[in-house]
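Quick review question:
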């Protein structure tokens, strides 16, 4: 072979290797966010617009799931997946947001280009969100029956999927993984969908819920000190497999995944029973097919599961699990349960602590100081008032703080810490817990005493 022919052969081979399947022209689209809003009731009292094209509108919906633009404030739209049927005339839920920290305006566009990239852009072309799948073999888009929005290749394999990018919600079969996206992040509020202060994080310490309003993350819930084998999946399974008769359904958390860990172990929370060599975490049991369910970290820090019951005549989304509840973890443990500074007893907000004693609770109840007015040091003094029999929501998750120590040493640490609003001292174990955030205070008839700055 001549040098010229050899060179041309190498060039042809190189060119062949770089050819990537493209999205067929009839599968591309460019949708403009404009027009009338929908009529039915949606979560957060949001306005919404249906996403569709005349040629392939079925790719944007499947079962109770459909792709939309929605907004809770004018001219700030989120690309999202909604769950529920309009004909139900029941509240429909938003279960996935693409761009909640980067909303778009009127006449923004959603485009799937020949190169396989799904792009959300302003009307002037400025890109606000994208899947970053240029030339990765994407040949189409579809929303599949479990609520997963996918970009697929010519063989149907997933190149990109919304299940790998959860926000505050896990749908049935969706996972958190330590090697990828390992957390859920709450919304700020019903009207503000941007990242809020609550997170649920999966790491080698377990699946832990945190609140961060002061620059420091404080644990307040979750399944700590447990091995989740690198992933946790929210799922719904039949109680009895391999039977044709009706069976109850169990809302569960699966540790690890079947493909990564064939000997997948499961654990139960409310009860534990062996299933062969496996053990399962069960959140709840229901007497109907709960396949369409989701687990959500709420803007108030709550963790709840909701299940779609199609045969109900109204309110088809039923709350089927609540982490902070009468049957699981005490409701007083939720930092926001009694507002910024409420005194909680057996799930009831019963008082508001003040330097003069406990007074009746109201939503206006707040700490005497919210900033670092008193930091100690020369010429300054820090005053405290005592609350006997009270526990901080963070205490159970940090083993009541540090120690053993003394009350005076604990006080000195809080004196010199401008972010410390008070401290909690366990007399039985002589442990000290500094509190940069107060929130709900839990009645503790044991030996825990709170000291609040004022």
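Suggested answer, residue by residue:
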């Amino acid at each position: 072979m001549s040098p010229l022919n050899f060179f041309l052969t190498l060039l042809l081979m190189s060119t062949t290797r770089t050819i990537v399947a493209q999205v067929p022209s009839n599968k591309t689209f460019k949708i403009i966010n404009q027009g009338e809003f929908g009529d039915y009731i949606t979560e957060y009292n949001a306005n919404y617009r249906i996403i569709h094209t005349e040629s392939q509108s079925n790719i944007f919906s499947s079962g109770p799931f459909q792709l939309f633009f929605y907004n809770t404030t004018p001219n700030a739209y989120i690309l999202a997946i909604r769950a529920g049927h309009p004909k139900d005339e029941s509240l429909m839920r938003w279960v996935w947001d693409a761009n909640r920290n980067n909303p778009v305006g009127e006449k923004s566009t959603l485009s799937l280009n020949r190169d396989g990239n799904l792009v959300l852009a302003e009307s002037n072309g400025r890109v606000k969100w994208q899947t970053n799948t240029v030339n990765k073999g994407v040949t189409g888009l579809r929303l599949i029956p479990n609520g997963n929005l996918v970009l697929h290749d010519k063989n149907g394999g997933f190149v990109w999927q919304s299940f790998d990018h959860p926000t505050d919600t896990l749908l049935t079969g969706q996972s958190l993984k330590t090697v990828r996206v390992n957390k859920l992040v709450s919304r700020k509020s019903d009207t503000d969908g941007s990242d809020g202060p609550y997170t649920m994080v999966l790491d080698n310490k377990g699946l832990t819920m945190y609140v961060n309003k002061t620059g420091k993350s404080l644990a307040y819930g979750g399944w700590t000190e447990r091995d989740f084998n690198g992933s946790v999946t929210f799922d719904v399974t039949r109680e009895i497999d391999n039977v044709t008769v009706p069976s109850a359904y169990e809302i569960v958390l699966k540790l690890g995944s079947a493909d990564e860990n064939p000997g997948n172990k499961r654990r139960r929370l409310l009860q534990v029973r062996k299933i062969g060599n496996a053990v399962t975490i069960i959140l709840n049991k229901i007497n109907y097919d709960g396949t369409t369910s989701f687990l959500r970290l709420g803007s108030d820090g709550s963790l709840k599961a909701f299940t779609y019951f199609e045969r109900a005549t109204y309110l088809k989304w039923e709350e089927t699990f609540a982490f902070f509840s009468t049957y699981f973890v005490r409701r007083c443990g939720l930092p926001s349960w009694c507002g910024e500074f409420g005194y909680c007893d057996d799930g009831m907000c019963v008082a508001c602590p003040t330097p003069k004693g406990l007074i009746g609770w109201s939503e206006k109840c707040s700490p005497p100081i919210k900033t670092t007015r008193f930091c100690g040091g020369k010429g300054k003094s820090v005053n405290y008032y005592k609350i006997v029999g009270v526990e901080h929501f963070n205490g159970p998750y940090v083993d009541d703080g540090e120690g053993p120590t003394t009350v005076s040493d604990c006080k000195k640490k809080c004196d010199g810490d401008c972010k410390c609003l008070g401290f909690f001292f366990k007399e039985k174990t002589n442990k000290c817990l500094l509190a940069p955030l107060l929130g709900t205070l839990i009645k503790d008839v044991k030996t825990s005493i709170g000291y609040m700055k004022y």
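Why it works: DSSP finds two helices and 33 strands in the chain. The first helix runs from residue 3 to 18.
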